[in-house]
From TrEMBL:
<comment type="pathway">
    <text>Carbohydrate degradation; glycolysis; D-glyceraldehyde 3-phosphate and glycerone phosphate from D-glucose: step 2/4.</text>
</comment>
<keyword id="KW-0324">Glycolysis</keyword>
<feature type="active site">
    <location>
        <position position="424"/>
    </location>
</feature>
<dbReference type="InterPro" id="IPR001672">
    <property type="entry name" value="G6P_Isomerase"/>
</dbReference>
<protein>
    <recommendedName>
        <fullName>Glucose-6-phosphate isomerase</fullName>
        <ecNumber>5.3.1.9</ecNumber>
    </recommendedName>
</protein>
<dbReference type="InterPro" id="IPR035482">
    <property type="entry name" value="SIS_PGI_2"/>
</dbReference>
<comment type="pathway">
    <text>Carbohydrate biosynthesis; gluconeogenesis.</text>
</comment>
<dbReference type="InterPro" id="IPR018189">
    <property type="entry name" value="Phosphoglucose_isomerase_CS"/>
</dbReference>
<dbReference type="InterPro" id="IPR035476">
    <property type="entry name" value="SIS_PGI_1"/>
</dbReference>
<keyword id="KW-0963">Cytoplasm</keyword>
<dbReference type="InterPro" id="IPR046348">
    <property type="entry name" value="SIS_dom_sf"/>
</dbReference>
<feature type="active site" description="Proton donor">
    <location>
        <position position="289"/>
    </location>
</feature>
<keyword id="KW-0312">Gluconeogenesis</keyword>
<keyword id="KW-0413">Isomerase</keyword>
<dbReference type="Pfam" id="PF00342">
    <property type="entry name" value="PGI"/>
</dbReference>
<comment type="similarity">
    <text>Belongs to the GPI family.</text>
</comment>
<dbReference type="GO" id="GO:0016853">
    <property type="term" value="F:isomerase activity"/>
</dbReference>
């Protein structure tokens, strides 16, 4: 079994032959990726990453995770953007939605930080961690990202204060560049266990490096199976797979067709399982940061259904016709829950008695699909047989390779992100960071006018 793609309800919005017309362009894009002749070719380390991960490397990660698991009731994963979203996406997709609330005897609680500068958030986090045996995975490729570095300083001090400096060293791990950055310097000085983020893998393509694998292993999930799913997809989407059989090629072609030929400027990633919320967040970063440049790019949005059918559903059904949907459809749930019969039937729901809750959900999904397509919203469906490590691994690689191809079709460099620097420059200037003196002066003058 494998994840699969259904584009029939999107193809009907395109002229006949429109998708097929992308075949030579997709082929050229895949060859450019393979041969390293595309823009951003120094960031292609993710392309054959799954098949190059060895079992001894996975064991090294698992061994580190086991030390953290044995010594921590809580593990704080500090990182932002590509150093955050992949791990959270996988952990939430596979985990129990309530484990953070009720605790899980078998696994440490994983919490995420370093992804915001909310004082209340950090105060509440440090209060929650007070008196707890906690560890930290500090993830930053550059090793200098403000949100993460600021959080790590707080956590490091608290961990050392609570466990003593020597004990703290055992439960602080750095995932960072091999040589550069403050996170590397601190890790080397303190003697933390470290994992390297390869130079040729950008943040949003790094979930299958220790950036994602270590937190995922810490949460108790099977990283071997995750990587094996991704490896399977690497094969299924290879450059020699015929266009019509290559799901990533087809997805890239359809979305570019919808964008350039049907005026569909917004792609809404939709799920019918709340635990997929962060898969959409990860996907938004992957496509948004890769394609949104040079005044081009599909805007990646997301909705959690059926929840958002009661809010954004109105817009999707009847708002401006510039959107299409990509639905991640989970074929089989992991658990079973039958809807009970009630003699009094006060709620009038006895027509559902004896049905699985998922049957109701599936009819909501089908009904929504029909309604939205009728309303002029093209629909792409990505079917996932079940939520487990293997299929999530497939899904990750599917979107990564599709993004690499799609960005090339759009004619941008999908592997850089020059636009994310603008806010940082202003923030540092406003905070009088050393080295920003001229910018500080200029920005203050501008604001005083
Ligand atoms: O995809 C990206 O490159 C970014 O989202 C980065 O991952 C993010 O800015 C964090 O950077 P770093 O890992 O250097 O702290």
């Amino acid at each position: 079994k494998s994840i699969s793609l259904d584009i029939t309800k999107a193809a009907q919005f395109l002229n006949e032959g429109a998708i097929k017309s992308y075949e030579p362009h997709v082929k050229a894009a895949q060859e450019a990726l393979e041969n390293g002749t595309c823009p951003g070719n120094d960031f292609l380390g993710w392309l054959h990453l799954p098949s190059s991960i060895t079992s001894s490397f996975l064991k090294e990660i698992q061994d580190c995770a086991n030390v953290l698991r044995a010594n921590c009731e809580v593990i704080v994963v500090a990182g932002i953007g590509g150093s955050y979203l992949g791990a959270r996406a996988v952990i939430e997709a596979l985990g129990n939605s309530f484990s953070w609330l009720v605790g899980d005897k078998k696994n440490p609680t994983i919490v995420f930080a370093g992804n915001n500068i909310g004082e209340d958030y950090l105060f509440e986090l440090t209060t929650y961690l007070a008196g707890k045996k906690f560890g930290v995975i500090n993830i930053s490729k550059s090793g200098t990202t403000t949100e993460t570095a600021l959080t790590f300083r707080l956590l490091k001090k608290q961990c050392e204060a609570q466990r003593g400096k020597e004990e703290a060293k055992k439960v602080i791990v750095a995932v960072t560049d091999a040589h550069k950055g403050a996170a590397r310097a601190a890790a080397d000085k303190e003697g933390y266990t470290t994992f390297i983020i390869p130079d040729n893998i950008g943040g949003r393509f790094s979930v299958l490096t220790p950036v994602g694998l270590l937190p995922i292993a810490c949460a108790g999930f099977d990283i071997t199976s995750l990587v094996s799913g991704a490896t399977g997809m690497e094969k299924a989407c290879g450059k020699d797979v015929p266009f019509a059989e290559n799901p990533a090629a087809i997805y890239a072609a359809v979305r570019n067709g919808l964008y350039s030929q049907a005026g569909k400027k917004i792609e809404i990633m939709v799920n019918f399982q709340p635990k997929l919320h962060f898969i959409s967040e990860w996907w938004k970063q992957l496509f948004g940061e890769s394609e949104g440049k040079e005044n081009k790019g599909i805007f990646p949005a997301s909705c959690d259904f059926t929840t958002d059918l009661h809010s954004m559903g109105q817009w999707i059904q009847e708002g401006e016709r510039t959107i299409y949907e990509t639905v991640i459809s989970v074929e089989e749930t992991n658990e079973r829950l039958l809807f009970p019969k009630d003699e009094e039937n006060l709620d009038g729901l006895n027509f559902l008695s004896g049905k699985r809750v998922d049957e109701v959900n599936k009819m909501a999904e089908l009904g929504t699909r029909l309604a939205h397509v009728d309303g002029g919203v093209p629909n792409i469906r990505v079917s996932v047989p079940k939520l487990n490590e293997y299929y999530i691994g497939q899904l990750i690689y599917f979107f990564e390779i599709a993004c690499g191809i799609s960005g090339n079709l759009l004619g941008v460099n999908p592997f850089n992100q020059p636009g994310v620097e603008a806010y940082k420059k202003n923030m540092f200037a406003l905070l009088d960071k050393p080295g920003y003196e001229a910018d500080s002066k200029a920005i203050k003058e501008r604001l005083s006018k």
